[in-house]
Specification:
This protein is an alpha+beta fold and 299 residues long. It has helices at residues 22-26, 48-61, 70-83, 120-123, 127-130, 159-171, 214-225, 272-285, 292-295, and strands spanning 2-5, 8-11, 30-39, 42-46, 89-96, 112-119, 134-142, 176-180, 186-189, 193-198, 201-204, 230-232, 245-250, 254-261, 264-265, 296-298. The strands form two sheets. Strands 7, 8, 9, 10, 11, 12, 13, 14 and 15 form a nine-stranded mixed sheet that branches. A seven-stranded antiparallel sheet has the order 2-1-6-5-3-4-16.
Protein backbone atom coordinates (compact mmCIF):
# COMPACT_ATOMS: atom_id res chain seq x y z
CA UNK A 1 0.00 0.00 0.00
CA UNK A 2 1.31 3.44 -0.91
CA UNK A 3 0.66 6.95 0.36
CA UNK A 4 1.02 10.21 -1.52
CA UNK A 5 3.25 12.62 0.40
CA UNK A 6 4.29 15.99 -1.00
CA UNK A 7 4.10 14.85 -4.59
CA UNK A 8 5.63 11.39 -4.19
CA UNK A 9 4.11 7.95 -3.82
CA UNK A 10 5.81 6.05 -1.03
CA UNK A 11 5.23 2.89 0.97
CA UNK A 12 2.72 3.62 3.71
CA UNK A 13 5.26 2.51 6.33
CA UNK A 14 7.54 5.34 5.24
CA UNK A 15 4.86 7.91 6.04
CA UNK A 16 6.44 9.33 9.18
CA UNK A 17 6.62 12.60 11.06
CA UNK A 18 8.83 13.69 13.96
CA UNK A 19 7.37 13.38 17.44
CA UNK A 20 8.62 16.94 17.93
CA UNK A 21 6.70 18.28 14.94
CA UNK A 22 4.26 21.08 15.64
CA UNK A 23 1.18 19.25 14.37
CA UNK A 24 1.96 16.16 16.45
CA UNK A 25 2.74 18.08 19.63
CA UNK A 26 0.13 20.82 19.31
CA UNK A 27 -2.68 19.00 17.44
CA UNK A 28 -2.73 21.40 14.48
CA UNK A 29 -3.06 18.85 11.67
CA UNK A 30 -6.19 19.40 9.59
CA UNK A 31 -7.75 16.50 7.69
CA UNK A 32 -10.67 15.13 5.73
CA UNK A 33 -12.19 11.67 5.40
CA UNK A 34 -14.33 10.74 2.42
CA UNK A 35 -15.64 7.54 0.92
CA UNK A 36 -14.81 5.77 -2.33
CA UNK A 37 -17.70 3.77 -3.81
CA UNK A 38 -18.15 1.69 -6.94
CA UNK A 39 -21.49 1.87 -8.73
CA UNK A 40 -22.78 0.67 -12.08
CA UNK A 41 -20.95 3.54 -13.76
CA UNK A 42 -17.55 3.07 -12.17
CA UNK A 43 -15.60 4.13 -9.10
CA UNK A 44 -16.24 7.53 -7.55
CA UNK A 45 -15.22 9.81 -4.70
CA UNK A 46 -18.21 10.86 -2.60
CA UNK A 47 -18.61 14.58 -1.98
CA UNK A 48 -15.09 15.37 -3.18
CA UNK A 49 -15.69 19.06 -3.92
CA UNK A 50 -17.60 19.54 -0.67
CA UNK A 51 -14.86 17.87 1.37
CA UNK A 52 -12.22 20.00 -0.34
CA UNK A 53 -14.15 23.18 0.49
CA UNK A 54 -14.34 22.15 4.15
CA UNK A 55 -10.61 21.36 4.08
CA UNK A 56 -9.97 24.92 2.88
CA UNK A 57 -12.23 26.31 5.61
CA UNK A 58 -10.22 24.39 8.21
CA UNK A 59 -6.97 25.70 6.73
CA UNK A 60 -8.20 29.30 6.92
CA UNK A 61 -9.39 28.81 10.50
CA UNK A 62 -5.96 27.48 11.52
CA UNK A 63 -4.01 30.00 9.39
CA UNK A 64 -2.43 27.09 7.49
CA UNK A 65 -1.24 27.93 3.97
CA UNK A 66 -2.12 24.96 1.77
CA UNK A 67 0.87 24.01 -0.40
CA UNK A 68 -1.15 22.63 -3.33
CA UNK A 69 -4.05 23.82 -5.47
CA UNK A 70 -7.46 22.16 -5.68
CA UNK A 71 -6.57 20.61 -9.03
CA UNK A 72 -3.29 19.23 -7.67
CA UNK A 73 -4.95 17.77 -4.57
CA UNK A 74 -7.70 16.10 -6.62
CA UNK A 75 -5.13 14.65 -9.03
CA UNK A 76 -3.11 13.37 -6.06
CA UNK A 77 -6.15 11.70 -4.48
CA UNK A 78 -7.03 9.98 -7.75
CA UNK A 79 -3.42 8.86 -8.25
CA UNK A 80 -3.26 7.40 -4.75
CA UNK A 81 -6.65 5.66 -5.07
CA UNK A 82 -5.70 4.11 -8.41
CA UNK A 83 -2.27 3.04 -7.14
CA UNK A 84 -3.93 1.17 -4.28
CA UNK A 85 -6.73 -0.17 -6.51
CA UNK A 86 -9.39 1.08 -4.10
CA UNK A 87 -12.92 0.24 -5.20
CA UNK A 88 -14.81 0.64 -1.94
CA UNK A 89 -12.96 2.33 0.85
CA UNK A 90 -11.72 5.57 2.36
CA UNK A 91 -9.60 8.58 1.55
CA UNK A 92 -7.96 10.40 4.44
CA UNK A 93 -5.79 13.40 3.71
CA UNK A 94 -3.89 15.79 5.97
CA UNK A 95 -2.15 19.14 5.91
CA UNK A 96 0.33 19.53 8.74
CA UNK A 97 3.48 21.19 10.03
CA UNK A 98 6.14 18.47 10.04
CA UNK A 99 9.23 20.48 11.04
CA UNK A 100 10.54 20.17 14.59
CA UNK A 101 8.98 23.01 16.57
CA UNK A 102 8.81 23.75 20.29
CA UNK A 103 6.97 27.08 20.15
CA UNK A 104 3.20 27.45 20.31
CA UNK A 105 3.20 29.14 16.88
CA UNK A 106 5.42 27.37 14.32
CA UNK A 107 8.47 29.35 13.22
CA UNK A 108 8.64 27.56 9.87
CA UNK A 109 5.76 28.15 7.41
CA UNK A 110 6.42 24.82 5.70
CA UNK A 111 3.27 22.69 5.39
CA UNK A 112 3.13 19.11 4.13
CA UNK A 113 0.27 17.23 2.50
CA UNK A 114 -0.30 13.49 2.92
CA UNK A 115 -2.99 11.35 1.27
CA UNK A 116 -4.02 7.79 2.15
CA UNK A 117 -6.50 5.69 0.15
CA UNK A 118 -7.42 2.36 1.70
CA UNK A 119 -9.89 -0.30 0.57
CA UNK A 120 -12.31 -1.63 3.17
CA UNK A 121 -11.09 -5.16 2.40
CA UNK A 122 -7.54 -4.16 3.31
CA UNK A 123 -8.84 -2.91 6.65
CA UNK A 124 -11.03 -6.02 7.12
CA UNK A 125 -13.78 -3.50 7.74
CA UNK A 126 -17.44 -4.33 7.28
CA UNK A 127 -19.19 -0.98 6.86
CA UNK A 128 -22.54 -2.66 7.51
CA UNK A 129 -21.34 -3.40 11.04
CA UNK A 130 -20.73 0.33 11.54
CA UNK A 131 -24.32 1.06 10.56
CA UNK A 132 -25.90 -1.27 13.11
CA UNK A 133 -28.34 0.43 15.51
CA UNK A 134 -26.63 2.53 18.15
CA UNK A 135 -27.20 2.47 21.88
CA UNK A 136 -26.14 5.98 22.75
CA UNK A 137 -25.81 8.03 25.91
CA UNK A 138 -25.62 11.72 26.68
CA UNK A 139 -22.04 12.49 27.59
CA UNK A 140 -21.10 14.41 30.70
CA UNK A 141 -18.53 16.19 28.55
CA UNK A 142 -19.94 19.28 26.84
CA UNK A 143 -19.32 20.02 23.18
CA UNK A 144 -16.53 22.58 22.77
CA UNK A 145 -18.03 26.06 22.78
CA UNK A 146 -17.61 27.85 19.42
CA UNK A 147 -16.35 30.94 21.24
CA UNK A 148 -13.23 29.01 22.29
CA UNK A 149 -12.12 27.31 19.06
CA UNK A 150 -13.50 27.05 15.50
CA UNK A 151 -15.64 23.94 15.99
CA UNK A 152 -16.28 23.80 12.24
CA UNK A 153 -12.60 23.09 11.58
CA UNK A 154 -11.65 19.44 11.15
CA UNK A 155 -8.46 19.75 13.18
CA UNK A 156 -6.85 16.99 15.23
CA UNK A 157 -6.82 18.89 18.52
CA UNK A 158 -10.59 19.36 18.55
CA UNK A 159 -11.07 15.59 18.68
CA UNK A 160 -9.87 15.27 22.27
CA UNK A 161 -13.41 16.35 23.12
CA UNK A 162 -14.87 13.52 21.03
CA UNK A 163 -12.31 11.02 22.33
CA UNK A 164 -13.20 11.66 25.97
CA UNK A 165 -16.94 11.48 25.29
CA UNK A 166 -16.64 8.22 23.36
CA UNK A 167 -14.35 6.65 25.96
CA UNK A 168 -16.85 7.54 28.66
CA UNK A 169 -19.69 5.97 26.64
CA UNK A 170 -17.72 2.75 26.08
CA UNK A 171 -16.88 2.48 29.78
CA UNK A 172 -20.57 2.83 30.61
CA UNK A 173 -21.52 0.06 28.18
CA UNK A 174 -22.95 2.22 25.38
CA UNK A 175 -21.87 2.18 21.76
CA UNK A 176 -21.86 5.93 21.13
CA UNK A 177 -21.70 9.26 22.91
CA UNK A 178 -23.83 12.30 22.18
CA UNK A 179 -22.48 15.67 23.22
CA UNK A 180 -24.63 18.55 24.40
CA UNK A 181 -23.51 22.13 23.79
CA UNK A 182 -22.95 24.69 26.53
CA UNK A 183 -26.50 26.02 26.03
CA UNK A 184 -28.06 22.64 26.82
CA UNK A 185 -28.91 21.64 23.25
CA UNK A 186 -28.01 18.42 21.46
CA UNK A 187 -24.87 18.98 19.36
CA UNK A 188 -23.56 15.80 17.73
CA UNK A 189 -21.95 12.43 18.32
CA UNK A 190 -18.20 11.91 18.64
CA UNK A 191 -17.70 11.56 14.88
CA UNK A 192 -21.20 11.89 13.42
CA UNK A 193 -24.04 14.35 13.09
CA UNK A 194 -27.46 13.54 14.49
CA UNK A 195 -31.05 13.77 13.23
CA UNK A 196 -34.38 13.27 15.00
CA UNK A 197 -37.77 12.43 13.49
CA UNK A 198 -41.21 13.61 14.55
CA UNK A 199 -44.18 12.83 12.38
CA UNK A 200 -42.97 13.01 8.78
CA UNK A 201 -40.30 15.64 9.49
CA UNK A 202 -36.60 15.43 10.32
CA UNK A 203 -34.79 17.76 12.70
CA UNK A 204 -31.08 18.37 13.14
CA UNK A 205 -29.05 20.79 15.28
CA UNK A 206 -27.95 24.07 13.76
CA UNK A 207 -24.35 24.53 12.64
CA UNK A 208 -23.54 26.74 15.64
CA UNK A 209 -21.69 24.13 17.71
CA UNK A 210 -21.10 21.22 15.35
CA UNK A 211 -18.95 19.87 12.57
CA UNK A 212 -20.64 20.74 9.24
CA UNK A 213 -20.82 17.14 8.08
CA UNK A 214 -20.85 16.38 4.37
CA UNK A 215 -23.25 13.46 4.81
CA UNK A 216 -25.43 15.78 6.88
CA UNK A 217 -25.38 18.18 3.93
CA UNK A 218 -26.34 15.37 1.55
CA UNK A 219 -29.21 14.23 3.78
CA UNK A 220 -30.63 17.76 3.91
CA UNK A 221 -30.22 18.07 0.15
CA UNK A 222 -31.99 14.75 -0.41
CA UNK A 223 -34.78 15.78 1.95
CA UNK A 224 -35.32 19.03 0.02
CA UNK A 225 -35.25 17.23 -3.34
CA UNK A 226 -37.64 14.49 -2.23
CA UNK A 227 -40.07 16.77 -0.36
CA UNK A 228 -39.22 15.55 3.14
CA UNK A 229 -39.67 18.36 5.65
CA UNK A 230 -36.33 19.12 7.32
CA UNK A 231 -35.47 21.71 9.95
CA UNK A 232 -32.21 22.91 11.47
CA UNK A 233 -33.03 24.03 15.00
CA UNK A 234 -32.09 23.89 18.65
CA UNK A 235 -32.96 20.52 20.20
CA UNK A 236 -32.94 20.77 24.01
CA UNK A 237 -31.55 17.62 25.57
CA UNK A 238 -34.70 17.19 27.68
CA UNK A 239 -36.83 17.02 24.51
CA UNK A 240 -35.35 13.83 23.01
CA UNK A 241 -38.31 11.77 24.25
CA UNK A 242 -40.61 13.86 22.06
CA UNK A 243 -39.24 12.27 18.88
CA UNK A 244 -40.14 8.89 17.39
CA UNK A 245 -36.84 8.17 15.60
CA UNK A 246 -33.22 9.25 15.61
CA UNK A 247 -30.19 8.50 13.46
CA UNK A 248 -26.56 9.44 12.94
CA UNK A 249 -25.01 10.50 9.65
CA UNK A 250 -21.35 10.20 8.70
CA UNK A 251 -18.88 9.49 5.91
CA UNK A 252 -18.35 5.86 6.93
CA UNK A 253 -21.51 4.84 8.79
CA UNK A 254 -23.65 6.87 6.31
CA UNK A 255 -27.02 6.48 8.07
CA UNK A 256 -26.95 4.70 11.43
CA UNK A 257 -30.27 4.20 13.28
CA UNK A 258 -30.29 5.03 16.99
CA UNK A 259 -32.08 2.42 19.08
CA UNK A 260 -31.87 4.36 22.33
CA UNK A 261 -30.40 7.40 24.06
CA UNK A 262 -29.98 6.78 27.77
CA UNK A 263 -33.38 5.38 28.80
CA UNK A 264 -35.28 6.74 25.77
CA UNK A 265 -36.03 3.98 23.27
CA UNK A 266 -36.92 4.43 19.61
CA UNK A 267 -38.94 1.68 17.88
CA UNK A 268 -39.07 0.18 15.32
CA UNK A 269 -35.42 0.14 14.28
CA UNK A 270 -34.94 1.58 11.80
CA UNK A 271 -37.98 3.81 11.84
CA UNK A 272 -39.97 4.45 8.68
CA UNK A 273 -38.40 7.84 7.92
CA UNK A 274 -34.89 6.66 8.82
CA UNK A 275 -35.25 3.67 6.50
CA UNK A 276 -36.51 5.96 3.74
CA UNK A 277 -33.50 8.27 4.15
CA UNK A 278 -31.22 5.22 4.12
CA UNK A 279 -32.82 4.03 0.88
CA UNK A 280 -32.48 7.44 -0.77
CA UNK A 281 -28.83 7.82 0.23
CA UNK A 282 -28.06 4.31 -1.01
CA UNK A 283 -29.74 5.22 -4.28
CA UNK A 284 -27.56 8.32 -4.56
CA UNK A 285 -24.37 6.34 -3.90
CA UNK A 286 -25.42 3.76 -6.49
CA UNK A 287 -25.93 6.57 -9.04
CA UNK A 288 -29.68 6.04 -9.17
CA UNK A 289 -30.74 9.44 -7.81
CA UNK A 290 -31.01 12.82 -9.51
CA UNK A 291 -28.51 14.24 -6.99
CA UNK A 292 -25.89 11.56 -7.72
CA UNK A 293 -24.12 13.71 -10.31
CA UNK A 294 -23.68 16.49 -7.75
CA UNK A 295 -21.91 14.29 -5.21
CA UNK A 296 -20.16 11.52 -7.18
CA UNK A 297 -16.78 12.31 -8.77
CA UNK A 298 -15.80 9.46 -11.09
CA UNK A 299 -12.18 8.66 -11.83
Amino acid sequence: MVAWINGTLTDIHNAKVSLLSHSFGRGTAIFEVLEIVTSKNGTALVGLHQHYERFCNSARALHIPLPYSKTEIIEAIVTCAKSNNVKNGLVKFFAYYDDIELTIVPLSPKVSLAIFCIDYNTLNLDVHELSKPSRACISTYKKIDPSTVPVYAKVAGNYVNSYLAQMEAKHKGFTDAILVDTKGNIAEAATANIFFVRGQSIYTPTLRSIMPGITRMIVLDIAKHDSIAAMECDIPVESINQYSEAFFSGSVNNIQPIASINNVNYKPIPGIITAHIQQLLTSLLEDNHQLSEKYLYYF
